[in-house]
Fold:
Amino acid sequence: MAEERSSEPVHLEPFIHQVGGHSHMFSLDEITVCKPLITRELHFYESMPDQMKQFAPEYKGVIEVNFVEDADGYVTLVAYPPKSYERKLSVQRSESKSKRSRIRMRPSGSLEIEGEQKQPQVFEEAEPRGDEAAAGHVPHNPWLLRCDRNQLTQLAAGALGSGSSGGGSSGHCAAPPQKYILLENLTHKYQYPCVLDLKMGTRQYADDDSAAKQQRKKAKVATTTSSTLGVRINGMQVYQVNLSRFICRNKYYGRKLTVDGFKQALCQFIHNGTTLRTDLLPAMIARLSELRSVLQRQHSFRFFTSSLLVIYDGQEAMHDQPERSARGDVDVRMIDFAHATHQNFDDPVQHSGPDQGFIFGVESLISMLKTVLQEYG
Structure:
């Protein structure tokens, strides 16, 4: 039975630390993000083995999100979370009501994010791509608008072109509600979250993909480090102490990298603009080694198209504490299970043994990080 939902609506805010992926994500509160519900991914979270849960975001349930056009022509996202969130959210709304972000959507397809953040952060895309590039420095990762453009502008065009009077009323439902899953915000404990999104495995298509799609995915693997390393960069943001802003890389950058280029990108991920954070490497290696051990025991599991996030706090680089252990400051989590499968899914295609393609990618990461530590540590 579904959990009773709150009677109080919550206005969702953009999740500013999304560095990769196709689906737009939003913040329900400081520790929870919302992701469009995909049935297979929901089932995977609900059936995840206990030993894997430490390497995935905590699953917190499902909510329904409404797209509402207000009197000023803004389209906002309104959700009714589970009843268990009601008390916590009421406190947060009273403390940050004036700081709520809004997404302005226009029929032309342009998107603007307005609203004051509690801790202003500045992002810069290292390699802009024509009309998709974010101009100058912006208060969110440039990938955020790319994710939103294809999906949210369709909703905006439908809503704003639906004949609603807009200016004379507020609270007009702009589009049919959509269901989202609630997941742990993995960046919430970091003031300046440095995030590396890695597409894992040597196979990037699902069992039920069409032959044409499988061929496209195979070609992408063959021409990237996915084939040679079992992993490629899908997105990245790194806080630069000397610039007081994040430098961002996207999946197009990751697709162009050679094996040596991938190693250089890993070095960039732990470089704060003034020094290489080799103090983080033992914790990363240890965490990845633990993940490898867990995955080797997961028979029948396949994590097709899943990613791995590596996260640490760029704030640590601003303190002269080289003796401090970074073990608790590094996080490694698996995400994106829309095409994952195992024997309990009762799919037509059943797999045996552990996911060697994903494990190969983890082992490549461990080996390369050890090399960097030996060379620069």
Notes: Confidence is low (pLDDT under 50) at residues 93-98, 129-135, 159-169, 322-326. DSSP finds nine helices and 17 strands in the chain. Residues 6 and 85 are 8 Å apart (CA to CA). The first strand starts at residue 10 and ends at 11.
